[in-house]
Amino acid sequence: MKGSVRMWPQLAFLYLLTAGPTWSSAALVDLPFMEYLDNKQLVLLQWGFDEVVGNITFTLSIKTSGWIGFGLSPKGNMKGADMVIGGFRTSGIYFQDHHATGNVLPMVDSTQDYVLHSMTEVEGRTSMTFQRAIQTCDEEDFHITAVPIKLIYAYGQTDEIKYHGANRGTKEVNLLRYIPRATSQEGAYFDFTMDNITIPANFTYYHCRVMKMPRFNVTQHVILIEPLIDNLDMVHHMILYGCPLDVTDDYDGPCYAGNIADSCFKVMSVWGIGAGAYELPADAGIPIGGPNKDTLYRLETHYNNPATVAGRQDSSGLRIRHTANLRRYNVGTLTTGVVPSRLYNYRIPPGATQFHTYGTCNTSLFSEIMEDPVPDLKVFALLLHTHLAGRKIRAGLFRDGQQVDFLALDENYDFDMQEAISVGSIKTIKPNDTILVECNYMTTNRSGYTYMGLGTMDEMCLAFLLYYPEIPINTCWSTPYQGHIDSVPSELQPADQEDIIAYENQLSSSPQFQIVSNKESRDFRHLERTVMTMNATPTVTCRNHLPSLSKGGRCSCSEIIGGSALLLLLLWSEV
Q1: pLDDT band at 62 (very low <50, low <70, confident <90, very high)
Q2: Is the Cβ–Cβ distance between 171 and 72 less than 8 Å?
Q3: How far is it, in rounded angstroms, from Cα 102 to Cα 492?
Q4: pTM, whole model, 2 decimals?
Q5: Which of 97, 109, 208, 279 could cross-link 255 (Cys pair, CB 3.0–4.6 Å)?
Q6: pLDDT tens profile 283-335
Q7: CB-based burial of residue 218 (10 Å sphere; 0-12 exposed, 13-18 middle, 19+ buried)?
């Protein structure tokens, strides 16, 4: 840790008898984020979190057979730091929660809010996995918020706690809003952009360019996608699609003009206003080239031009970095939510203080258009999307008729800030699961109906799921079947909130006309009978203790073994 650390004579450990060089309380979920805390890549931190439940889990792994320490610090040094130290001896493990008040001895927390899950020492590398509440009620703990936090570490070469020398450091990381640093220089890149088009003086305009990428005879993995924006005030979002094999000609013109390019719907990348570059996880990439070397791609750009400015030129697009060093997983993007088309007449009344729409995806239908068995899908990021009337978006995951998780939540949706959200822990979609996307709108400032459609003043309700391994499914979305609805209100005023709610209930209780399409844009259509009920968004409050094993949760250190334990005090000092 920053500064010198000495071990005082009153060394202390929570010492626990164990039978071997590893210990684990239970299997943990995948931890999606990782960052080396040092330049030599000896100190690796992995973490994941669940904001709905309110927990954060860390794995600290250091190239040493000695003690290891990790902390959260206001300024990158000991003062005010919240820290844990642990290690593994042949006779047992040790682990404890501390805090420092300054350049004095750190103190053992009166409340032990970190729970140890596992400790290993394998081939000269010591690793410990531990968990705490994101917000504890303990003032001796560091409060984790969605801002960059200075992380500190230290370690020894043996399990004798003494001055660590140069084996310490600090690094600033945003734990809850982590975005992989888009600094990869691996491989090469090419640009896929508009060709200096003239943006028409329309409120909303979609322009599409269809062409081939560079012809890669060997499969490549896309590892980084960076936006190249000419007109930040007009470019609202861009989507890069792969085309089916029967699309063989280039195209450059308005989207959805009734030509074959309209069938290009295999989403490869999505960029939204307010987002920056996006780097794929270290073990995953988007496949291009090889068997698909002759595939054409469509870049769709949505221009939002409310001032109807004429004559603006634009060559916006995407810079795509790729490598021939293939990663473990192929990444796919699954588009879920409500079908964004006026053809289905799904509309939101004016004057609504809130109005909910629902799109469902029953993954059991995937087997209808897939030859191979459907694998578990690991979701690592999402992009949630509505237009101007959108206020909230939630994506829920259901299994055997019950909600088992939220894939993503945005309770304060911002039309001008749309970027891929890395999930705090990998979300697993199993075969036969159902995905439900719920959007909440406010139309008190509108005098006419708002339709589900492509225009800026239309609305959308979409969740783009980035996952692996890739399967040949592009979209899985729905729209309510309205044939049985007795009457659709023709004029609803702001005072008609009861009628608006009744209309919403009719739509949400209607069977869902579900559409699933594959990479060749072949559809499978199904009438889903019901929309499942999504749970209320949990309210997470601070708490000191995580559930114990005896109560059905993880165990605390004192419960790891039913044998004897010796409690000593661990004291640190910074010089």
Answers
A1: very high
A2: no
A3: 64
A4: 0.73
A5: 208
A6: 899 999 888 788 899 999 999 998 999 999 999 999 999 999 999 999 999 99
A7: exposed
Task: Please give the Cα distance from 58 to 149 (Å, whole number).
Answer: 14
Q: Is residue 272 a contact partner of residue 237, using CB atoms and an 8 Å limit? A: yes
Concerning whether 206 is annotated as a catalytic residue, the answer is yes
Q: In the chain, count of helices (H) and strands (E)?
A: 1, 42
More confident residue, 53 or 467: 467
What is the number of other CB atoms lying within 10 angstroms of the CB of residue 536? 6
Task: Calculate the dihedral angle through the C-alpha atoms of 195, 196, 197, 202, rounding to the nearest 10 degrees.
Answer: 130
pLDDT band at 530 (very low <50, low <70, confident <90, very high): confident
Catalytic annotation, pick one of 15, 178, 206, 241? 206
Is residue 98 annotated as a catalytic residue, yes or no?
A: no
Q: Which of 346, 385, 413, 467 is catalytic?
A: 385
Q: Quick one: how far is CA 338 from the chain centroid? A: 20
Dihedral of CA atoms 164, 170, 175, 181 in degrees, nearest 10, equals -130
User: Which helix (H) or strand (E) element contains residue 499?
Assistant: helix 497-508
Phi, psi of 48 (to 5 degrees): -160, 165
CB 250 within 8 A of CB 324: no
Give me the torsion for CA of 373, 376, 382, 386, rounded to 10°.
50
- What H or E segment, with its residue span, contains residue 523? strand 523-528
- Residue 482, judged by CB atoms within 10 A of its CB (0-12, 13-18, 19+), counts as middle
